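Worked Example 4.2. Consider the chain below.
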Amino acid sequence: MTESSYLTQEGAAELQQELDRLIQVKRPELAQKLKEAVAQGDLKENADYHDTREQQAFVEGRIQYLENVLRSAVIIQTGGAKDVVSLGSEVTIREEGTDDDETYMIVGAAEANPREGKISHESPIGSALLGQKKGATVQVETPGGVTKFKIRKIG
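Applying the procedure from the previous section yields the following structure tokens:
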């Protein structure tokens, strides 16, 4: 049984675009490149051939992964109830002892990208925030030790 992949509408659209690009553009490009490499003869010492096969294996693996994620996708609603942190919530937190607020959107693991402010509901911070209310202080076990965050806003 496949586990559900939680995605926002935007995240599902981005993954679908990537899948379409891999199938319609990258796969045919690599097939052509492989055909040209085979035409060069002697495959044992043909770097183009081996490199293309490696790229092709990566692309096929990524296509399979994206198809599985999209097949099992559960679309989460963003901008819902703002009283409790849930999947799709945008949460502003402040680490205890600092004056800096950080804002994150809680998303499924397939869509997580901390650089874009999207953290997985399965991550230490994401799982600690789930179900919490504005004003709550959560304790998170991070690689650097225990950190406390106060929830300042849920959007």
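DSSP finds three helices and seven strands in the chain. The beta strands are 5-8, 73-76, 90-95, 101-107, 118-120, 137-142, 145-154. Compare this with Example 4.1 before moving on.
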